[in-house]
Amino acid sequence: MRYSIHSSMKPGTLGNKVKRCGGKNIKIFKKANVVFADMTSDQASELKSVVKDANIRITGDIVSDYLLTNAITPPIPKEGNPTYSPEEVAISTGLDSLRRLLSPPMYGKDINLAVMGTGIRATHVNINNRVVLSKNCTSFPDGDGFDHETGVAAIAVSIAPEVNILDIKIIKDTGVGTEEDAVEGIDYLIGLCDDEDEYAPDVVNMSFGTPDTDPNSALRAATRVLLSKGVLVVSAAGNSGPNPSTVTSPAVEQYVLAVGSIDYDTEQPSEFSSRGPTPEGLVKPDCTIFGNDLVVSSSKSDTATTSKSGTSFTSPFVAGLVCLWQEFFTRTGELLRLQGVPEDYPVPKLTPHLLVDVMTPQTCLKPEGVDPDKDNIYGWGIPLPSMTVQLFGSSSSLYTIIPLMIEVMMIGMMGKVMGEME
Description:
By secondary structure, the protein is of the alpha/beta class. About 30% of the residues lie in helices and about 20% in strands. It contains twelve helices and 18 strands. A seven-stranded parallel sheet has the order 9-10-8-11-12-13-14, with helices on both faces. A four-stranded antiparallel sheet has the order 2-3-1-4, with helices on both faces. Strand 11 (about 205), helix 7 and strand 12 (about 230-235) form a beta-alpha-beta unit. Helix 6 (about 180-195) runs parallel beside helix 7 (about 220-230). It is globular. The N and C termini lie far apart (about 55 Å). The model is unreliable at about 60-70 and about 395-420 (pLDDT under 50).
């Protein structure tokens, strides 16, 4: 069996312990502090007796279409009607006024966004030549053979057109990946951070998930190391609603920004959108945005589109917005204007904690009549770019105010406006 192992021990030393207990095909991810190896159950038990704090568990794989455990998959997209383009949704939420909060406008310039998943068709017209780095952790060819992350990345680019995209392929062309491949991708990103590489990620989008069964799984442990580097992680909540406690890993992590879905016309929660709480009792998702009936880019050709619904496509909306937030703070240093940020805060930009616990609550709005407190369906609500303008617009020039008034009016009329466009 294939096992994942991690502990407080240095990964190289842990790898040696695994080898002495009879482990084979050992793979050590030093940055993520996780080891994978083939072992028998007796060998795993022996290792546990030697390394007392080791977390040892069977990792996922696919055998003859039978899922053993812990497979990493994109949330299964729901069929949709081609009603709304990402651009239409973004404009209606006040995106243009946020971009023009600074001069020159914010388009994600010099912000690195890693998109982890099925790979990207980098030549697609809606990717806009923004892929600057690619890493393939699977045995399948580069590109998007499953037709998923091309649409995800294009949504992020529609929000932040000058963002640098890091294409991290961890899911096979069959639509299923392994925890090991996911950890390899995370390990690679951590390495870029440690090396202070020019393409070290500022934000990571994870439109994939696996049922959450263990807070100390290799995927969650590796994600926590990535978060410790100050990287902002945005993840799809999952498409397993409407039942409670269906948010998938890694979105269940406390400081991963979990994104659910609501219907554009009604602002009601999408039936498929996963709900909290998490097994540890956390309220999730953290926010929701429109995920029904979207026209998304397809990897079938350089101009192809398709219609899909799902939290896979709400996550990149928010990830693109987070890129603009980080650009704003990087360019202005005005982080202290956020309520709840201590005056002696050591860094001038968003951290995972500030993103989830401070920025998101102050920039979200719930539909009228819904309890404004965070809940396990809406989270804090819809992260509206126009709310960011309300927070920080006083430092910008007057020309942002009139567009903001117009766009706030549009938010209140979203269903009507888009209905007339059909």
